[in-house]
Design a protein that fits this description.
The chain is of the alpha/beta class. Helix content is about 30%, strand content about 20%.
């Protein structure tokens, strides 16, 4: 079996963290972006992160955050990774990585082949890439919109660092997404919710199970 690593993003309650851990996901994501229905404060995220079991990586998602906010988050929350989900430049990604000494994942929105070169550029400075659906023009949120992109755009492609597929994934389509793209890591937020910001333990379990099954090697 080839391991598929799952990230559940936008956790806001202790029961969310417990469900993510019980399902076997590898990453727990906390959003620090006030416009998002999944946004939490550093104080809330600290309590959630402290309740996470060993082995569950804690990821802070920020959008074009200044050092002041990052200082507050990193100072309060025991983190394993920073996820930059805004319009951060290549230089800014490198700067954040050096300043905080944490692995950095850079999200890159994809809608067409013209968006792919950015993945190579960011892959030279980030520790991981998040290949996400590009937000629609005028959208408030840079991610978490429940939208997918044409997975054929990245089928068979590789970048300098590990990467994670995001954008419109659900328990119903994650196996197809893995098969089409070859992704070994997947990220979900709205696809395991019953309402914006309200995670569902059953959907989390179903998503992780479907992703894990997609990584199984067929028996000959």
């Amino acid at each position: 079996m080839h391991d598929i690593r799952v990230k559940i993003c936008g956790l806001t309650r202790p029961e969310d963290v417990a469900a993510v851990a019980a399902a076997g996901a590898r990453y727990a994501g906390f959003v620090f972006f006030p416009a998002s229905p999944r946004s939490v404060t550093p104080a809330v995220a600290r309590e959630l992160a402290l309740g996470a079991p060993p082995g569950l990586a804690k990821v802070a998602l920020v959008v074009d955050a200044e050092d002041t906010l990052l200082d507050e988050i990193v100072g309060a929350v025991p983190l394993d990774m920073l996820q930059l989900h805004g319009r951060e430049s290549v230089a800014r990604v490198a700067e954040v990585r050096a300043r905080y000494g944490l692995p950095v994942m850079k999200a890159v929105g994809v809608a067409s082949e013209a968006d792919l070169p950015a993945l190579l550029e960011y892959g030279r400075v980030a520790d991981q890439l998040l290949v996400d659906a590009k937000a629609p023009k005028g959208a408030v949120l840079p991610g978490g919109n429940g939208l997918a992109f044409d997975w054929r755009l990245i089928a068979g492609r590789r970048w300098p660092v590990p990467w994670m597929l995001a954008g419109g994934l659900t328990p119903e389509n994650v196996a197809r997404a893995v098969a089409m793209t070859g992704a070994r890591q997947v990220d979900v937020s709205s696809g395991v919710e019953t309402a914006p910001g309200r995670k569902d333990g059953g959907l989390i379990r179903d998503f992780v199970a479907a992703a894990s099954e997609a990584g199984a090697v067929p028996r000959l």
